[in-house]
């Protein structure tokens, strides 16, 4: 069965970005991307790299795990602000928004409907897994639909910021099975948890 996979980078204290909601991995950002981290991503999740990185690295072809990516409007707009209206042209690209009326790139699908209904329909269609980019608000809305979490856990704490799930997500404890793990020399861990 096709899974919804929340593949997300987190600090040790459970944040996916700083309080201002900007991209912390960009130039001057506080979140370093070591070479071995990048190499692991290239080897395992080449489809999770944005188009400009894939082109620079000579990566092409379909995804190893995913053929579809879903993200919230605020996460999408980070790429948009950097001049990249479709960071993942190699995947079906869905952006959830109730305020955007026109997709900035022809292949980007805007969805204003309930994300749960949309994800259930995508799962029923079959195919490779669906990558949930985030952010916290969309992940909170889809909390119950997530089948796998792949945490890219950085050896970093920041004290406060955007959490893995938005503070508005409902309280609903769930147990997860650790099904894969990789520790890389620079100190990050890639942890796969399945429902
Ligand atoms: N570390 C990582 O791997 C990672 C990954 C992704 C994002 N991030 C970070 O996460 C932050 C953004 O996260 P965020 O939580 O602020 O925002 P977000 O989840 O990316 O986007 C929120 C927006 O998505 C739309 N949305 C959310 N729930 C919806 C629903 N139920 N139905 C329809 N539309 C819905 C709404 O758009 P409208 O307002 O247009 O309706 C909402 O304002 C950024 O700082 C980004 O850098 C980090």
Brief account:
The chain contains 5 helices and 10 strands. With 195 residues, it is α/β, with parallel strands linked by helices.
Strand order of the largest sheet: 5-4-3-6-1-7-10-9
CATH topology of one domain: Dihydrofolate Reductase, subunit A
- Name of the top-level CATH class of one domain: Alpha Beta
| Strand element count | 10
The helix content, as a percent range, equals 10-25%
Give the low-confidence spans: none
Overall CATH architecture of one domain: 3-Layer(aba) Sandwich
State the fourth-level CATH superfamily of one domain.
Answer: Dihydrofolate Reductase, subunit A
Q: Beta-sheet strand percentage?
A: 25-35%
Rg to the nearest angstrom?
16 Å
Q: How many helices in DSSP terms? A: 5
Which small-molecule ligands are present, each listed once?
NADP nicotinamide-adenine-dinucleotide phosphate
The profile of the biggest β sheet is: 8 strands, mixed
Descriptive overview:
This protein is α/β, with parallel strands linked by helices and 195 residues long. It has a domain at 1-18 and 55-171: Dihydrofolate Reductase, subunit A, CATH 3.40.430.10. Helices cover 22% and strands 27% of the residues. The protein is built from five helices and ten strands. Strands 5-4-3-6-1-7-10-9 form an eight-stranded mixed β-sheet. The chain has a two-stranded antiparallel sheet with strand order 2-8. Bound molecules: NADP nicotinamide-adenine-dinucleotide phosphate. NADP nicotinamide-adenine-dinucleotide phosphate binds at residues 8-9, 16-17, 21, 23, 71-75, 78, 96-100, 115, 133-138, 141, 162, 166.
